[in-house]
What does this fold into?
Amino acid sequence: MAAGSINPASGKAVVHATDLSGSGLRAIRVKLQTGLAIVVCFLMPVIINQGAFDHLLGHWLGIRGGTSLLTFSLFVLIVSGQLALSELDPVEVTFASLLLLLCAVLCATSIWGDSIAYANRKVTLTMTLPAASFLAGVAVVRQGMLHWLLIACLLLGTAFALSWTNYDAATYWELNAIGKTEQTITYQGVSYMLGIGTMGTALLIWRSKDWRLRFVLLALFAYLAMKLLGSGGRGGILYVIAALGAYFLASQSRTMIAIAFAGAFQFISLFAITFTPVQTYLIANQGNLNLPFSIERMVTSVYVQQADERPGEVSRDFLKDQAVVVWGTAPILGVGWGSFPLNAGLGDKSGFYPHNLVYELLAESGVVGLGLFLLLLAAMALAFALKPASVRDKATIWGLLAAALALSMVSADFPNQRLMFFAFGLMVGLPDTGQRVNA
It folds into this structure.
């Protein structure tokens, strides 16, 4: 209640205009913080894959090209404004500083690297994207907008599913592989956007207590999952499996976790027993499996190694093998930030990274760089695990972190692991409630 004075004639409290003004400004400030946090919720998924945003704008508004830089600039501006209206606590400042320090150390290794063009680009991205994504996570979770983040994922994924007709995933993938598609988004991006929609819907089903809402969400989940399975990309499926698995493990009782592990053991045992006959069948019927395209690619890549690679294509396995070779030449400090492609004989250009965060850090920053990253990750995870807070919110964040770490093993280079750094911000920024809350 605003402070004031007592009217000696009536004996009633009088609230001064200055008090009303101060109270009004505080209310406006809170509403502005909340509004900006919601905007960040919707911007973050498309910032992670800006080609997706280009596609959505092109389909729904007819705006094509030139939006990526504008979108990222808007994102940074909004996050900065949201944080300017609040104050970071000492823990948030500490971890933000440690993340910036890690990025600076990694960039410093470019001093002894041979790359110029790619290193300059990578250094610029490394000193901006991780910090911006981290602060976005802090901004969202401090305002209690985790639920809104999942709603944003659901809505964006649905908008993308409606705009992408799944006209011929195999043909689209073939054209994209040789660089002859006019689409603004790759098949991996298609898979990612459908994956975040599927993941967001599934987590909302588990978080919801209304059975009628759950029924609607379940129908939407089935629709998005079918579109995801036909996308041709495997990353989105990995994203969903990792997120839901981590959420389940973090939110369920020990009995349910034991049942889940027993089921996983049975699945692995069945997989091992049937591997040879299934492999023989797939080799004999390759190309005629009549499965959703993403599933077909997954099973052939598991049972028939390199089944869908083209002659002369630089595969992910090749890049990983080269990363091991490059790391062997400088195991302690690496060959320098951004110098992997050049040292692997692929030229001084972006795009040829190992597609695996561990291999990338080892090759370019050595065991020192990887060790520093793992120390920071362990410190954040430990602090988050010990933080008394909502079990449901913590489980959701564990799910997002698991999805990000899973994707970091198959996609993007260090500065573009935006979802991972965003999850770091969620972990650090989640408010401490003082006690464990089962909600």
